[in-house]
Amino acid sequence: MAYRALSVVDIVNEIFEWYEYTMFSAAFASEGSAETERRATLASSARVCRIFHEAAIHVLWSMFDDIYPILHLLPSFHLDPQSDQYLLDGVQEHEWERVLHYTVHVQSLHLGHALSIGPKRLDPASYSVIRRFSERKPIFPNLFRMHWVAELSQPDAMLCFLSPSVEIITVRCDEATAGNPDASTRAEWALALSNITKAFCERNPRLTDLHLHIEDLSPSSIISALLPLNALIEFSISSSQSVDLADVQTLAVMPLLEDLHLPELAGVPNPALQDLSSGFCSLSRLYLERCSPSTDIFACPTLKQFSCTSYRYGGEPLLRQSCAAWLRAFPNLEELNIEVASKTLQDVEPRISLAAAVAPLLGLPSLERLVVRYSTYVPFSVEDADVSTISAALPALTMLILEETSFGRDFPSCTVGVRGLLAVARNCPNLDILVLRRIVVRPEDVADLPVDSLDHGLRVLGVQYGFTEEAERVITNKLFQRLEQKPDIETAQV
Question: Model confidence over 238-265: pLDDT tens digits?
């Protein structure tokens, strides 16, 4: 019966799918490792019989960390010891057809892997050979995902391997700022990336995800070339420079754009951004790497998630002003994640209530996930009154994280006790995750707890300080009996 089952193609394919490739694991593969064993098993299975061969080869060839194992199928591909580069010359038609027989299985390709062992550069003349063959027929006709570490010596190298089937592209310009390049080199980089982006628009009409890491190059020339990508759903560009109003206007008219990751919005007149209120009709997630009180924001009623990994704190009034702007711009927000960074490394006293500092955000009744992380040098305090106020205003919360990042230093800016935890349990019945810096269990507060336990459904409690045996007993017996993940008492610091 088992033998008959293994003669069914669908069953065999299902079995070999358990040997799917883990991205980048080949870079760390060593003799005897799990990845080496995986490859050996697939290679051996491919030699068993025809039905095993097709299924095993499909999985074995589905993803590659580099182009060189594929080019090694060509007899003329070799390493020149003098130039320390790979050469490719004298390729015959039948040899190239043999390569295409296998590359039809490749779905994900990483070019220029920074962790490749040994020389990884291909002689520039060899690209002409590849380009000549690829112009007649795509090398990877079923390629779905492509990751490219760009090199200025061959800025359009990836276009040799680009197929119309590609829907997800990531480009990294790790060389863009290596050695502090001069203005002419930066201009050369910017032109190359702009041309490559235009090529994406021409060759990949089905492109849905585009991720660009351009170091400190300007995003403008690249974003302006994106307009023809009407199928784009997710776009991210990481840079030390800001995007301006023209960039935002280009992105706003993309009808399917749902996920947007930008470095920072340049300061522009607020009315200009409000003119974009009819754009971004599908946007649901916005991620800003940097943000400040002077950053204007565009209105987007469809937005559900907003994140900023570095909000530069300029005082409580300015933070409240920013929160009020986010409230107006994103009235239907379900998730807010901000990390507040201080401009100085000096302790500030007195500290102010976190709930008061972000008070406008409490006008978002649809908010389900709230994450506020702040450095030690931002003068916030989190006490019972803060978590009580936040939980009462946001009853739909499923995740609440109010966390101080102090780089190993313990400052008592967070002193949430039993009263605060009790308020959270009563106000937010669907809360699933709660993370606080410190809890303080006071005997007088324990006496005020109800006789019967609340039996709240909280699964995860994260606390770095104050989770003593007494705290565990009170919390697990009276408040959160269903905890699946909680702090370690033995390592908790008091």
Answer: 988 888 878 888 898 899 999 999 998 8
Do the strands 352-353 and 380-381 form a parallel or antiparallel pair, or are they unpaired? parallel
Per DSSP, 382 falls in state B
Structure tokens, 402: 């109010």
pLDDT: which is higher, 60 or 323: 323
**Nearest 10 degrees: CA dihedral of 342, 345, 347, 351?**
0
> How is residue 177 written in tokens?
């700022």
Exposure letters 338-361 (e unless 16+ CB within 10 A, then b): bbbbbeeeeeeeebebbbbbbbbb
Residue 178 is predicted with a pLDDT of 58
DSSP letters of 297-334?
----TT--EEEEEEEE---HHHHHHHHHHHHHH-TT--
Position 346 pLDDT exceeds 70: no
The answer on pLDDT for 157 being more than 80 is: no
Position of tokens 């001069």?
182
Q: Which residues contact 473 (CB under 8 A, 6 or more apart)?
A: none
Q: Are 479 and 431 in contact (CB under 8 A)?
A: no
Distance CA 199, CA 162 (A): 9
Contact 364, 327 (CB under 8 A): yes
